[in-house]
Amino acid sequence: VVKPAPFTYHVAHDVAEAVTLLTELGEDAKILAGGQSLVPMMNLRLARPSALIDITRIPGLSYLRAGPDGLHVGALTRHRAVETTHDAAVLAGFGVLQRSAHWIGHYPIRSRGTFGGSIAHGDSTAEWCILAVLLGAQIILAGPAGRREVSAGEFFEGFFTTAAGPDEVLTEVRFPAPAPHAALAEFAPRQGDFATVAAAVSLDLGGADGPDANGQAADGRVCRSARIVLGGISAAPFVVDAAGLAGQPTEPVAWREAGEFAAAQIDPPDDDNGDARYRRRLTATLVSRALAEASQR
Amino acid sequence: VTGEPREARLNGPAGRWVGAAVPRKEDRRMLLGRGRFVGDLARTGMLHAAFTRSPLPAAEVTGIDTSAAVALAGVAAAFTAADLGHPYLLAVLERDEFTPTGMPLLAGDQVRFAGEPVAMVLADDPYTAQDAAELVDVDWRPLQAVPGIEAARDSAARQVHAGLTGNCLVDLTMFDDATLPGILAAAPVVIDAVFRSARVAALPLEGRACLAEWDDRDQQLVLHASTQVPHQVRSGVAQALGIPERGVRVIAPDVGGGFGLKCVVGREEIAVAAAARRLRRPVSWIEDRQENLTASFHGHEQRYQVRAGFGRDGRILGLAAEIDCDAGAYSAFPFTSAVEPLMACTELPGIYKIPAYRARGRAVATNKAPTAPYRGVSRPQLVLVMERLMEKAAVELGLDPLEVRRRNMIGPGEFPYNGVNGISYDEGSYRESLDLAERQVRETFLNGGLSAGQAGLLAGVGYACFSERTAYGTPTMSQRRMAMTPGYDTALVRMDPSGEVIVTTGTCGHGQGHETTFAQIVADRLGVHPDRVRLRQGDTDLASYGWGTWGSRSIVIGGGAAGRAASLVGRQLRQVAAHLLEASPDDIELAGGSARVRGDERAALPVSELARIVHFQTHRLPEGLRYGLEARASFDPPGTFSNACHAAMVTIDPGTGEIRLCRYLVVEDCGVVINPMIVDGQVSGGVAQGVGAALLERVRYGDDGQPGSTTLMDYLAPTAAELCPVQITHLETASQFSETGAKGMGEGGMIGAPAAVLNAINDALRPAGISFDHIPVRPAEVCAALADTALAGDAAPVRRDGNERGAA
Prior knowledge:
heterodimer, A: alpha+beta, four-stranded antiparallel beta sheet, 14 strands, 25% strand, B: alpha+beta, seven-stranded mixed beta sheet, six-stranded mixed beta sheet, globular, disordered N terminus, disordered C terminus
């Protein structure tokens, strides 16, 4: 089956209209943004929404804006826009988003898929979902009762389930604080596949003034604190206990030990891309590599 | 944009078109989106078919009700097996060891794999048809599924078809040397091993597709089908529906790839034809990707249990093999399910001189989709077996594995070689291709070793040496004893009054560039430009009965027939020119679009002028030269062996198990190359499929028989990102058995790549003392195997080159 079941199609011209349509059309209605996850699921008849509400005509929802209160990403911002941004303010504090975008699917998917759509879809292997949790993003939702914010850590509840209500539209994702020493490492069977495991890390480094003239990290820096978030090993992005890295010198042995420690904390699933043992191996490797990369930034 | 493709100017050796890299005539329309595929055809009042398919791998159908489907607005009809009179396709092998089993167009009282069609719905649009297919109400009584070879061979197993024993569709011991047990018992080194290859999908870009319509004027059922074998589809329709072959016309328009999946006849296409005949309305069916992956045809799921004896000098003394091929639920028409075991048993020895041989092969029925002769047909597996055996023997004996190969392979001066398998191998360049490949590996792969960026990776180089029999004519095919024995083909070459040449052939190119290569062959024989030659193919009303395009047969057999017919027309042209120029036909040469008297620059007539005179001024010619320029010729060779040596270099990341292909080279010999650009394309594409089979591709079924690879998200075909450029070198040993000196070459890339890649993986893993004997090798398996070794994880030492071959 590669043909969707019957559905009705509606165009929303502003966020309020989208909310109204969601309220009127009931729980089986779905928001259509880039359609890169929803439409394949509909074609396979795994998803059978009774109605689609197309929000791609709503103006003003596509932007990357870095300000004093962090980075604002409009819900309709295409992955490709993040991948190709040259905005120095974005790259300075939030460059990990730009550097990670190439992991998302393939070029046509990145050209059509949206930031908000990926967050709303809530796939635990999705780069944006993992990074949202890593960087403590706030998810902005609009509903009949007005606007509310949910922290990413509370937003992703389980397999493709989020805290968004059936009558709410995701309008923006805000990353509150710069994360200059962050990296995402990932392994997938092929370029563009869903990650078997993805590891995102962010370090707070002290004791030196950033990279030296050669772009290499100065020796003798210390890790003040670290955050590590994994995708592909649980129903929602998984926050690893990284307290052990506090006070550690920025040395490969510390990264390797942190990787092994992360692998020991998880209880990943078995599937065709690998059993739990393999996912632990990948976790150890990818956490270690992501930490090494982040510490070089 | 209008007009003909850009003028081909590149000329082949000695001023011939054969051998020239002529740009493909097909490319222009394809690249402009102007190809005409089945999906591009539309008819007024056309209905769209959709199939209700079994969700269960094995079940009895105890009831079926189409009334709700028919009641849906926009639905014209729905048919079950009973509605159609239980038509079926029957593929027959005339051997006692074979049990014929019919494949119903729609399953009747039993389904044998998940995805098998039980009902067909016809509606005004494909969406409504799909909606209605869901409304067909079927009562299932689940049966115990037989999910694989082991389960099928279990003595307590349920038989997939009544009448089978041990679930064998065929079980035959093709060779059995009584001296072999003694030879193996006495051999200094004996290798026992089991080799496995996963079930794979041919995955043509265009799935199956058809449009059937009834033609009242010709009283004929016209079936436009995406197929490699129009005439066999016609035979299948005629046999299944009980109508004479004349009553069916099969037309293959542009076909978006087949790879063997479309060289058998599908049940859905015939069901659609039956519906069109019954409803007297055009009916279209375009297979979707999920159907293509679960309900068409798979291949290559094989298990080899092998025992081989070697002498201390590395020479093989004897070989015994038990070969099981998972055939799936049905025997595909017309080849039968025996195609894989027959090929495997017959050709396992390959290029190696084996004194004593035993081979038993089985096609095992399971509750999975049926299999078709997918590109390579058993040879990717049997080459992998032989190339792994050479490596294993080298390790055991402490010899260089390439030296072990050299000591065993049929060498220069030993052709024609009569093998233990009864095959006569025509001349090839087995030794030369290996020597050249080894030198190229030294010069290009290993030069400088790995770059610093690859620190921490393991690297390895692997080889595969092989030959492949191509262009099986009836002298060879008849040994298989198929009720329908393929092999010959027939071409008609006709020149019109303008001097344009029309060639009809029974072969059916579906991406191979036959419009170009056939034109090159014919152009040389008639002294005209290839742009003056048009190929007509894929139409059973136009062409004489032919066997389509598969088995690396077309350029040798179809091209040979076209060449022969063109030579006959060339003789007619020379006779006409001789008469008009008052010269001897022997002194006339055809070149540059003219007939010229050799040695007389002024005595020449354009070919187009000869054509005009033959048709419009017939009275100027004597009786024997009148009435058209036209000839028909057939060709039916025994077959001819192409050969090649492949070499692959991979790196392995111990931290993730990732295997990356970094270098690949092919030294191949397909005799006279008709068009080197097209040959390179075929080789590269075949290598891509073989690399996919070695690293990624696997049609999964659960232990419960449920398919696990239902979309391209879970069936992993390689993309450009997983491949690397293929460096290709041509050697040219002209075939004595073909009209043009060419040998077939459509499958070789696929045949050599799995073995070369697997050997490269094992070379990389040698420091860890690990090796694999199955494909695909997956990252999780690499990590699991490395886990208990010193090379586990990220701390792996760097191996700077892949040159640590056997300790000769």
